[in-house]
Amino acid sequence: MPQQVLRLAVVGVRYPPANRWATGQTRPVAVMADVPALEPGAPMTRQDGAETVYLGDFALVLHSGETRHYIDNLQAQQPSVWVAMIGDTVQLLTVDPYEGEALAGDVERVVEALPMPPQTMARLQQFVADHHVEETFYKRKRKPATSPDDPRAPRVLSDDEKWVQSRGRAGHPGGKAR
User: Fold this and answer.
1) How far is CA 98 from CA 95, 105, 125, in A?
2) pLDDT tens digits, the chain, 178 residues: what are they?
């Protein structure tokens, strides 16, 4: 299965604790296609106690089997990159909207859908153009549970058939002859 790896830079904002018992929090706020020459954790700006920091560059892995999901993302009003963090650590980047939604179900994880950079959007569109295969939907035809062509027994037995099959089994309430 073909795949492609893109490197994206993530910028976050560190907020100070709200009180003396709380801890500070870091949230992702931007994704950049161009990786700056900064060390991860390097401060970028400070304003009102909040500090913008460079969180590092991370791999965004594109898989050819998920191109239908990428198309859904590209057709959205705002194509996004989902950044998942636990604490101050970036865990995962994805452009699959359904994976992003699933990641958001974990209460310990901070997941943000950030605007996709134009260069990343162009590379994603090219990946989809190169690897997408349209799958046609075939509705399964169901057969009735009982038919002359089906050798299986009917699912519901008549009362006479139930008593005939259960006679002779010890311990079974229907095992007595009437």
Assistant:
1) 9, 11, 18
2) 889 999 999 999 999 888 888 888 899 999 999 999 999 999 999 988 899 999 999 999 999 999 999 999 999 999 999 999 998 899 999 999 999 999 999 889 999 999 999 999 999 999 999 998 888 888 888 766 556 666 665 566 677 777 665 555 555 555 555 4
Structure tokens belonging to residue 158: 């008549």
Residue type, 3: Q
